[in-house]
Amino acid sequence: MEKIIVRDRILNRGHVNSSFINLCNDICYTSCESFIKSHGLQKIMKMLYCEEIDNDILEKSGLYQSYSAIVESQEDNNLFKCLYRIDEEFAVHLSENIYLYHLIPKNGEVYSSVIPWFYADSKKYYGDTWWESDDEIIDSLYNLSVLEFLKRYKAY
Fold first, then answer.
1. Which domain holds residue 49?
2. What's the number of domains the chain is made of?
3. 55 pLDDT exceeds 90?
4. Which of 32, 57, 46, 10 is closest to 65 using CA atoms?
5. How far apart are the C-alpha atoms of 5 and 29, rounded to whole Å?
6. d(Cα 103, Cα 120) in Å, to the nearest integer?
7. Given this model, what pLDDT does residue 130 score?
């Protein structure tokens, strides 16, 4: 199962895409580089992702340093979470609890290549992990009905 890094900040549904449309103002950008050159990374991060970054070079920002730390350790930190990607739209975070995240798509739009991590537009509690392994929980997500899953993982 693929693991992905997700920013631990839930954005409003449709915010990134709408902000991108407003920022572009009918200009069609063909590359991430031309988009960043035109608007500057700090403005893009603020407008699209509601992030204040301390540098116009992403790799030198504190946010990126926190991202790099989780990539290396594969352990959650205060800014990012490591999730299992269930499909194109959903990922699950397994700690002592089970949270299902709805991902903001990264489907080839210019803005989606500005950052290497994902954002989500919703996060739902789905229960407690108890003594189950990650593989067992993921298998349950695929194979149990919603009601069976909620009962099994005490999500009530």
1. 3-152
2. 1
3. no
4. 57
5. 26
6. 4
7. 86
